Batch of 3 targets.
Target 1
Amino acid sequence: MKRAMIVGGGKGGTALLGKLNGLDYMEVVGLADLNPEAEGMRIAQAHGLKTSRNAFTLYEELLPAPDIVFEATGDDSALTELQRHIGVQTAVVPAHVCHLLYQLLVGKDELITELSHQERLHYTVFQSTHDGMIAIDNNGKVLLFNQAAARMTEINREEAIGHLIHSVMPESKLPRILKTRTMESNQKQTFANGRQIVTTRIPLWINDNFVGALAVFQDVTDMVDMATKVTDLESVQQLLQAIIHSSDEAISVVNEDGQGLMINPAYSRLTGLNEQDVIGKPATADISEGESMHMRALHTRMPIRGTQMKVGPHKKDVIVNVAPLLVNGELKGSVGILHDVSEIRALTKELEKAKQRIRRLEAKYSFDDIIGSSPALAFAKEQAFKSAQTPVDVLLRGQSGTGKELFAHAIHNESGRRYHPFIRVNCSALSPALLESELFGYEEGAFTGAKRGGKRGLFEEAHDGSIFLDEIGEVPKETQVKLLRVLQEKEIVRVGGTTSIAVNVRIIAATNIHIEEAIRRGDFREDLFYRLNKMPIFIPSLQDRRGDIHELCHYLLHKINQTYGRSVLTITDQAMQQLLAYEWPGNVRELENILGRAVIHMNYPEQELTAEHLPPLSSEDRTYKPSLHEYGKQSGSLAERMAAYEQKELKAALAEHRGNKTAAARALGISVRNLYYKLEKHGIV
């Protein structure tokens, strides 16, 4: 049974909940709506379902995860967020599809009423026919035994139904159909009472599920009448056409040779092609760019999902799902469903433009976006989470590509400043003169080209919020003095100005350089370092948390799939072993680039990333190996010698375990927390 969750407790979600409840193949396990008084919320609570105002919180609480999420609000942004955050193992159904499903369920109720009438009619016909009919289930138990069969076999109908066919009619050949599942036509047989009949035995299927067998038989004298009874295939075809034509999804059907058989009006509206352009033509007739998924499905006999292509004279962007049509194992053709994505893509581009315009004023990530559960990363996240609860300035340290910016976003979003600006500054991307005017602003006439009226600096823009100073180690010493004033006095002076301006800003700085070495070289002010270093957080490299690579790969693949419109779902064990064996000097950023490059070079229908898809990964050993002159003082006080020896042992342990801090701490007999403390104490990054 499929587990389902509904997002939206309004009219549409409530109606859908009412129709889904009671289905024996689907169970609604939760409903989310921003309005706790929504009608759907009250009904869901009355039925004992889990409810929440936050769809993502509810999704996390529903374990195991729902198989299907019905987005019933009709809000495109809500649908986009659901598709972005919900795992690839869960299908997200848009509001327009929910509406279609509701209509189908309503139609189902009407159909059930009609079928009840039809069933009574069929029962009357079944009992009135001169043909004998016996049906058994897949266990051999008699389900149907009409009056004609009772008359021909001289077996009481009530004594037959519900009993095994062999106990009722030992001479019956129907159990053979349960094994072969193939039809036997016009077979001669003699009953126990001596009556000779001609029978046709038929396997029974419902939605590709084998459910039993049926025997239809007559006296030999009635053979002439049997020839006049044929299956009304035309009515079946008309029913199928009516169903397909009523769908709002664009549908095309081809035969086993790839020739067009049927299209519906929705297909014509989407592609601009009519029946004359498609029916009887090759499956490639509607394709502007790409290969025929119909032909691939016919060749492989496997369904193909999520393939992008352009169709029709206007080169309409669509996503295509195609499945082969197999009847009793015999290929009869294939059916394709096309989804229009051009409008969604245009809206997505507009959304991205809007995000770019406001990206300097908001933090996008939370601690949930920092993927991994290794001890080293868990320790860093714990430190960051605690620092977010206080107004203390933070210094993020770690190699390039480890996710320092994600930590900065998460700290801001977890703090009391979350509803105020979050300003990001890459200190290494700006020249010294430009950096100072950008950070602190300038007065009118401060320099040639200065705007009339002056300009507010980024510290003023970040008032009451946070400012993220990335690559703080690249800031010129002249600007470092002004940064120190901001940290100490909480005020700035614009370039060319004399008036102090108070600012209430939390500084989150980040660096990937050995800042203690920069202090020794005189490139970084020691007093500024100690002001920033109140709350240092060391973000581990990917080498130090290899256990997170598997989880990171699947998270990044989901992200890459959304970016490039792919459907890569898994990574083979061999490919994963190659990724685990690599040193990752570029850390998580390099891992994302490697996976992105591999996915780009994969064929669209492929869903499994193998070792052959990966670009060559260098096996060069990049482990840091300290030399003798780095081991510290050979003379001095006992405290200095002990510190030098401790520093030497720490470096040696890290080198021996290839930079793995968890393994190094275990070898030294200390906790990981204590190791990080000692590394910070000795300036070892």
Target 2
Amino acid sequence: MAEVGDGGVREVGGLSDPARLRSLRQVSAGPEPDAAFDRFASLVQRMLGVPVALVSLVDDLRQFFPGQVGLPEPWAGKRETPLSHSFCQHVVTEGVAKVFPDARIYAQVRDNLAIPDLGVVAYAGIPLNDAEGRTLGSLCAIDTKPRAWTKDELSILTDLAEACASELRLRIAREVADEARRHAETAHAQLAMQAELTEAFARTLDIDEGMRQLAEGVVPRLADWCLVALVSPDGGVRHVAGAHRDAAAQADVDRFAGLMMSQLLPGSAVLTVQRSGKSIRRSAETPEDLLSRASDPAMATIAERLGYASFVVVPVTAPVSGEMLGSITFVNGPGRPGFTEAEERTALDIARRAGLSIDNNRLYRQQRHVAEVLQHSLLTELPTIPGMELHARYLPAQDGAAVGGDWYDAFAQPDGTVMLAVGDVSGHDIEAAAGMGQLRNLVRGDAYGREDSPGHLMSQLDRAMRGLNVRTAATAILARVRGYEVEFANAGHPPPLLLRPDGTVDVWWEKPEPLLGLAPLDSRSTHRRTVPAGSTLVLYTDGLIEDPARILDDGIERIEQCLRDNADLPGEELCNLLIGAAARRADDTALLLIRVL
């Protein structure tokens, strides 16, 4: 303890020390009554017999009294004073006790306004330190007349100050723990949000839809509202998706997003980020600030309604090439704090994931296009055959690279008969497509010009696959149509369906035989049917009837019902309806429809 006359003790820390101010904030006390600190002030008053006692905490602009007893009005109600009325600031800056028997004769404080305004004459203040020794304020006793402070009085005051400081340190520790918990919860919430966004990106192949889900996924957890802008070929904005924490504000968000596509000036944050590839974070923004960045004043009006006080704009780039893909703007209204550096890092991570998703999506679309072109190049252009209508469809699976082993084929023989084939090579990849191409060519090459039955041709196909080392397995239907007579062989394939002119449907079930390429049969069966004029024969692969939740028989019944309900439709329309009646395509689908006139 030091009794100071004219300020001979060296200062140990300034009032503006950031660490001290941070510790002071963690006390979570202000110029409002605090029961615990009021009791410390009351103890000082009773035990020392002074008219005024204070628990005084000092920041860089003022002192405030969470604990006080005996102050005159208006100070008792305000519970704070400017530093011009503070003796305790000297306790803080010097880090030692300050004791003035008569403050009016000490140069350090004799001009302090606390003397005339608060009636302070005698003063004794003991430092209140945090766990690191930083002085946050003082526990002080005040008399309105000169007083010779005794050693016992100062000892009591010191003991009470230590107890009061313990309360301060406890509150700081609790706040630190709460802050750590909040940070952990925030980090957990952000990780959960990022995981949800990653899943959302994985669920859709539509880039614009993915960006809409991104905007909806980050509000209100990271921002009050969010806008995702994708770059157009000319460097402008092609598309903007937006979301607001208040669903009723969505119309304003959509209007603002629409204006962004054409009304941003070169100096706008969005276009600046898209040019530089660097994020921009700003606080203390007003809607009027938008007037210098957009050509349409309506954007400022809408922003005011949406809430516009701070923002962070982050770039969305392709992960490998670094190509600029777009930007994401996160905005907070005046009722929410500005964005922190940590939140900016989270925004950048979200943008990185978005960039990866967009890049993967574009690559997938390119691969899908190439695969579809390849697939269709392997499929036959249907011939024009007198007395017969031929219609076909091929649809890739909804998942994967859209290349697979399903195929259809039809060609006329020299004798006037027509060969029909539909097959499904195992797999959904380039190897399956290659195997399909080989198998289709083997069927054509082996069957053309021969009058053998389909069963014999299928057996020969088995031998050719084994002899030529075609390493694949496939289901297939091979049929020959001769007028109104149909011969067919079935290697493990779903049964053909026949729609009769009267609207009834036959399912051509036969005893199942092994797939091609597995256990070759020396002799495969040939089945024969006679069909009436006007009948429609339907050959298809299992993608048309598969449903993960149901058995294949249910799928066949669904297609049967579709045929019965639409028996009078032209072949093209009937093909469309059959495809539309299929369940979600987890597999590619080939469909061949033959109408015998």
Target 3
Amino acid sequence: MDCAAKFEKEVAAIPGVTRAELNFGASKLTVQGAFDPQAVYLAGTRHDIVARPAYEKGQEKQSFFAEYKRVIISGLAGCALLAGWVLQHTQGLTSAAILLYIAAMVIGGFSTARKAFFSIRKLNFDMNVLMTIAVIGAAAIGEWSEGASVAFLYSISNALESFTMEKARQSIRELMDIAPREALVRRNGEEICLAVDEIRVGDILIVKPGAKIAMDGKVIKGTSAVNQAAITGESVPVEKNVGDEVFAGTLNQEGAIEVEVTKLVNDTTIAKIIHMVEEAQAQRAPSQKFIDRFTAVYTPIVIALAIGVVLIPPLVFGRPWSPWIYRGLALLVVSCPCALVVSTPVALVSAIGNAARNGVLIKGGVHLEEMGSVAVIAFDKTGTLTVGRPAVIDIIPVTAKDEKQVLNLAASIEQFSEHPLAKAIVEKARQEKLALLPVEDFTSLTGKGARAKVKGKRYFIGNPRLLDELGMQTKETGQVVAQLQEQGKTVMVVGDEENIVGIIAVADIVRESAARTIRELKQAGLRRAVMLTGDNKATAKAIVEKAGIDEFDAELLPQDKVAAVNNLVNKFGKVAMVGDGINDAPALAAATVGIAMGGAGTDTALETADIALMADDLAKLPFLVRLSRATLSVIKQNIYFAVVIKLIAVVLIFPGWLMLWMAILADTGAAVLVTLNAIRLLRIKPELY
């Protein structure tokens, strides 16, 4: 992490570079300006970093030595150290042992010394400088085995740290490999295999069963089940028919389909997700900014203290130089806060990458940290807690012989209407496999209902107001209607010119996962769940009771929702708002964290919210809360561990109890441990139902 930051600064200083920005999590450097690319490459070599243009990524296969160089070097240094120790302590061959110790120092410390040389030229006393001084100093006072141990342990800790960081970065690499690099395309009547960069909007993809879809588009031929887990995190394949949208990187499981391309490769949903995840991993979270400020003060103080440990006892108190030089070297080794610096970014990289692979797009470390301390979650109703479309709930016969007769008559009339309630009735009739009756003289009654002739007889379907106008309202009917309306349902009455045939109640259905989600959120530590809706109080109350919501505000305009969110923030502290990302944009912006549902289908949701649930699935919320809280916990554990280890090491130096190899373990060993601790975040997964 420290080397990467120095590399970024060095590239920024190259003549002609106007901007250099390093994304540590994604291993990506963005450089702007008129500059010599070779200068960037050379800057990388000075920090043991391989830099190459993005377009060459993946084209060059590394040699075995290049891939395992750190491990090989550490192994050779370790062998030399072990051989030297054996010769010295079992054979008494001290001179031969010293030669092997020197070999271990050179092999294990060459790369560190090289980077130290470039750092010290810029008067930058980084970890490489401190380690090199420690090795040379140990040799100078005759502690050959200690110097060799320092070189070996630092070398192997660098190898382990590199390995663990690669593990953390793997989540973003897996995202990049999701979409295929080429596809079978029909163009000008010919079927050809093209690289995705050559595919244009309007091209037709031919996607066979078992193949991945290469580009975003819409199905124009065929039907299939598509596994969208890579984008949305959904475990169950989604049925796709003509006109449905499909995403690059998803897996066509059953039938062959043809897809018309709607977006270029750089504009696909997966490309946007990768870009946003990389940006999110590059952002500095509040805890990381605090650590940066802390280390800026801490490191110079400890280095000054190390110089004092070396000089004051011999010069002021007449103590021997050798033991205090040794203690000063040990203090120098523990002074560089590697574990502290890496403690936060590696946790954020792991958590954000893990979330993206499971269909949750977090657009920055700050939002992840904020989500971890949220006390209350506010929900929009329509399309969030409910499915967002009406469905028939109750059918009550009055003069009809049964429910099917009422439904068949109502659906026959409404089959010509485009009203959402009419579509719900027709859909219910289709589910019941009822054959719709022929209809004549259909007339829509705006705001009231519709009329039509069925089998030569005139019927109507409409709301209770239409019943009042026709003078057909009765006390019994009025009681039933009132009871249904109190339950939050929309009531429609079916009748002829003389009698009421039946009553149909329609309502927006609460999601099956809503109650379970609210329950799991409470178990995860949320204090309250609140619903904010523009709907009437009766409907809101019915939804709240079914979903297990603690409180609600109803009949709210968009500006009222913003005021309600602000009130919750004032009352409870940090508040998350969950909505569709479009209508609820002001409320999402007002909340501490704005969470959009169904981000995979809408660009607006991706742009407006701090966090997007890529599937239209509430069940991802408990996973998000568990992951964010676990991330906060890991960051705190890492910081406390790194600080405590440093303090213990510093205390042990003054009585002479801290050996150089122990100082190495206290520093770079701690960095490896906090990285391994952060990688545990990759194991947190959504619950499967």
